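Predict structure. Chain length: 212.
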Amino acid sequence: MNLLNRVKVTLVHDECWTSEAGLEDVYTINYDVYPEKGYLRSRIIVPKGLRKEIVKIKEHKSIKKINHISSLNSVILVDFLNNYKGSVAGFLYDNEVLFIGNQISNGKETWDFITTKNKTNDIVNGLSSMGKIVDIKIKNYPRFIPQLSSSQLKVLKYALKNGYLDYPRKMDASELSKKLGISKITFLYHLRSAERKLIEFYLDYIGDVGDE
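Prediction complete.
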């Protein structure tokens, strides 16, 4: 029985630095929480074109301290402390979720996490009390890594090793099937089956299946 849910929820969190206008494509890469001290440490990646918005973050009342700001290629890394109480990160930590990712864009926070089925409704209700939920997706989790048959795995390994997946191909299907001692049709059947399983798994994992 699957006892876990993967939840992806987008909300507008008023009274938080994330609600500042102009923030786009900001990603949280790490959280450290210190509930006993009343703050959490966040590390976010901000596009370099949003330097003015970083100043707004520094001045927001929910921010306790900016530890460090540094440029990394096309992005800026901001390391700071913000209030634990009233934060979504703090709320999710209190509910012992498995954090997957967080994005801030256009005044909205998108949180991706895993929790137990019996806690999902309570967590969603708690989030709705912190701000306006504008989108939510809940699906069974985990989707285990697909199991390839021995034939699918062998064909896929040979295809990769011998350059069939390169562009341009170093070996075509006819050559590779002869090397494996199988027909070209059998080779393509096993390869396409393996590719489909892996692609479906990946797209489902990042949440794109059924979104369009």
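Summary: The mean pLDDT is 89.
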